[in-house]
Amino acid sequence: MGLLSRPAMQYTKAMNIASPIRTTGHTVCPHDCPSACALNVDLGGDGRIGRVRGAADNSYTAGVICAKVARYAERLYHPDRLLTPKRRKGAKGAGGWQEISWDDALDEVAEAFVKAEAAHGSEAIWPYFYAGTMGQVQRDSIERLRHAKRYSGFFGSICTNMAWTGYAMGTGTLRGPDPREMAKADCVVIWGTNAVATQVNVMTHAMKARKERGAKIVVVDVYENATMKQADLGLIVRPGTDAALACAVMHIAFRDGYADRAYMARYADDPAGLEAHLKTRTPEWAAAITGLSVEEIEAFARLVGATKRSFFRLGYGFARQRNGTVAMHAALSIATVLGSWQHEGGGAFHSNSDIFRLNKAELLGTGYLDPEIRMLDQSQIGRVLTGDAEALRHRGPVTALLIQNTNPLNVAPEQRLVKQGFDRDDLFVAVHEQFMTETAEVADIVLPATMFVEHDDLYRGGGHSHILLGPKLVEPPETVRTNLFVIEELAKRLGVADRSGFGLNEREHIDRMLLPNGLPGYDALREDRWIDCQPDFRTAHYLDGFAHADGKFRFRPDWENGKAPNKPPVRLGNLGPVSSLPVYPDQVDLIELADAAHPFRLTTSPARNFLNSTFTETPTSREKEVRPEVMVNPADAARLSIAGGDIVRLGNGRGSLRIHARVTDAVKPGVLVAEGIWPNKAHLDGEGINVLTGADSPAPHGGAAFHDNKVWLEKVAE
């Protein structure tokens, strides 16, 4: 015990001692953000990090990063960081722990997996992970163990599906104009992302266009957030009504001569059919749906219609509504109707995820993948763990979990079901984490994890075009281990360590991802720091055709069989009410519409100083966010006798919670916004905002509609 605790004491004792800068290290922000910022890190003579800055010589990061990452030392040297393996003592969640050695901890995890497999088959074990790190090696090595051991599959649905699917249904692939071209635009439309809070580099390039070219910035979102405040034209739409706005803009384009008919004749599948369909999608029709005025819609349509260099930057807000796939496709279609793709600084961009040529088969262990092994939906972990037959694919229970890089007890929808599932006495849980998250608190074994400056890894930026190396810069505490170490050690104990892909270190994995496809390996990247994979202008702007067999953009997508980057396996089929999806871009009310019993629509938008559940442990981030609150429009507040600071209750069929009210005209009447994700325990009743969110699968390929909730609101009596 003494040997285990001594390094931890030394590590925390010196956390507030400043050290002189010895040199600058170069790395990459590892967090779940499309920006994947290139970083410069001050390194002190004592081997500790100091200030973190954006790399000025990276053309996308351009020297700018978010404030929460700039103060990363606060997180790295936090006194509550996990530093030793722990075994639970007493009841789950009671807080009783015993420090144990790494060997004992890993032996117990392996033994629990062997017992679970003997009792219920290999599918009883479910390795569960996500994007707490975006490093390819540390994030994805868990898949190799999964496939080698035939454990239950993992359908990663929680973040991207509706947005990715809607974009690829139109273009045929997930890539677009160089995002640095925003700086060359005459109009930048930031739609469905609060970029100031979540993708700060989008603002870097948009503001450059404004400063150097006089470009106009348009922001479309559901409330007046920090990005909206930077807009020349801010459009606050009702949640889930983006497609109605897009259709009205295209209606005006055809009506007023902004539509590029020659371009569409060459590059689109059915412009005549689309024009006929949009005849009734007037500004008046859209105004009634979106809550915008006819004048606002007309002004937006005129601006982008008359501005050839209009760059549509489409965000992940589209992935948070049940009709988000249709909404993304509709917003994307505007660029095709206008012919914006033809111009530098024009077109529509969401993600470049399809441009990177990484050879990941060995890393992922795809050669071991058995298509007969069931695939479980990440977003439905609550249903899986509480025995829902459909969620379990009508097979046996999950009785053992290995969790890396995610905190489902806080971030997953249907939180009460998730909590109920984790409370099962027959469920074994091992969590590999950096802090004692609420998921770690109910684990049987907790393992301490390294942070990004303490290991090697490779990153790629979906929001830009770079593959970047994140080399190890400082030594971790002696009792902390990498994700890769845990996977390798479990592979040894579970009898698969002799298989291809195991036994390699991070640098070897990085070389095997890069070198076979003609990309420079680890050593070259250590010098060059990144590889720019941006396609040439014609390819990026689809001037030689879109990525469908006929080269045509799809105004009429094949929702069931069309291209999509993250389809569920064939044996699962399409998900959600696919038959309700429209033939052409259209408003489709596959959302939780407000009703008499639930007169409000609630969105759970990102907070500026948190990143999902990361940074909620750092004091500066918590101080800046203050406390969990729900934004309420003054008219709604007056009607319900609610004053700022009052405690209110929100509820729906999934549950209810108490929270403080913030009365503000940043939200429209009938709309509530709760920025987070705050830890559950930070809320008044110990339950977080995801008590109110659902895990039903949106069409056509699943997802998690976190911003799509109908709720009631009432003031809590004193």
Automatic annotation (TrEMBL):
Protein name, as recorded: Dehydrogenase
PANTHER family the record matches: OXIDOREDUCTASE YYAE-RELATED, TRIMETHYLAMINE-N-OXIDE REDUCTASE
Keyword Flavoprotein assigned: no
Biological classification of the source: Bacteria, Pseudomonadati, Pseudomonadota, Alphaproteobacteria, Hyphomicrobiales
UniProt entry keywords in alphabetical sequence: Iron, Iron-sulfur, Metal-binding
One Pfam family, short name: Molybdopterin
Annotated GO MF terms: iron-sulfur cluster binding; metal ion binding; molybdopterin cofactor binding; oxidoreductase activity
Keyword DNA damage on entry: no
Family of the protein in this entry: Belongs to the prokaryotic molybdopterin-containing oxidoreductase family.
Domain 4Fe-4S Mo/W bis-MGD-type span(s) in chain numbering: 22-80
